[in-house]
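hey can u check if this looks right to u? its 426 residues, i copy pasted from the old doc so theres a chance i mangled smth
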Amino acid sequence: MSLPVIGFAGMTHLGLVSGVSASEKGFSLVCFDPIAERISALINGVLPVAEPQLDELLAKNASHLRFTSEPADLKSCDVIYVAPDVATDDLGQSDLQTINSLLDVVFDVARADAVIVVLSQVPPGFTRQRQRPGRQLFYQVETLVFGKAVERALYPERFIIGCADPGRSLPDAYSTFLEAHGCPLLPMRYESAELAKISINMCLVASVTVANTLAELCEKIGADWSEIVPALKLDKRIGEYSYLTPGLGIAGGNLERDLATICNFAEKYETDSGVVRAWLTNSEHRKSWPISILRNTLFKGNPDPVIGIWGLAYKENTNSTKNSPALSAIKQLSHVRLKAYDPIVKWNPHWHTTGSLSSEALDAVKEVDALLILTPWPEFKSISVEEIKKAMRGRLVIDPYGMLPERNCTEAGLIVYTLGRAVVVR
């Protein structure tokens, strides 16, 4: 029996990664987007996102991938995923216009027997509202994690599937595609699946908030959060994969959207969301951490400092700057001369009038009074502390994620601030 043909509508981050990863499983793919310029760039190998392995898989499976801006090409598909990125505003509100438009296109052109799957994250109630008589419509929880998107698409832990009737078997073409990934299938009603995605992210936010709250206490009492984490991960009630790394608040857009969704539903249905609002307050508090250190140290004795910044993306292995801690810090440093470096992200002059982007990490620390490492890119771990000390004019390093070896920094005479660790001055 031949494998079903799989379609993906929407060639932004989610749809592109999901489609290319599906080709690795041996399926033939039709990758559609209504923007012809976007499709042309993909045909020429120009990717709009940066993800580990994505370039390699695209080249390896080119014969299985068909990129098109013609909606009629989706008629050959047995299963069509509607998978555009859903943009959010600064309040975490979703803009559903793009997915609604793409879903209309797919409904209009798909064969009567085709399975249509909403993959983009949508608020509870969306999929049921978009049902059409005679159509096989499902919702599937996406597994995308920026910087690990391909890995997550190739090796998902499970598939959570929203159905009009969870008691009925999945259509053959759809189940064949899902079963090729070798993971459990969890069918449930539409609203349960839509809320499951939000539930997962809320659990992650809870873990991060615990880490941030206790890491801050560590900084004050002389404890070291990195020493505590292994003890927590060996507790089966918490687990080895727990999100226990402290950070500079919630970033990226997706978690913020889910928290906003819960707050909005709580207000509408008069349920309690106090703990969610507390998480948001904690996030805002932690975002101010680097600037608070600068105010209490560097700015007190230096009215005109130069500051180097390593990292602009909101996390490593991505070019996304949505709600990036680095951009938040840059906005608050409008009065300071900045030198920045990021392996992927390009400098936007609207971020800072006097800031500049260096082509090398060490160039961004030459003659600076302080260094802020705001994205934990792996390459920063390989840079010699001695070279950093030699290039800098000052001694202050704000290293939230502990990218530089603590002992080496102390021996070099650098004053390093790390989340969850008391500062050591020699």
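The mean pLDDT is 93.
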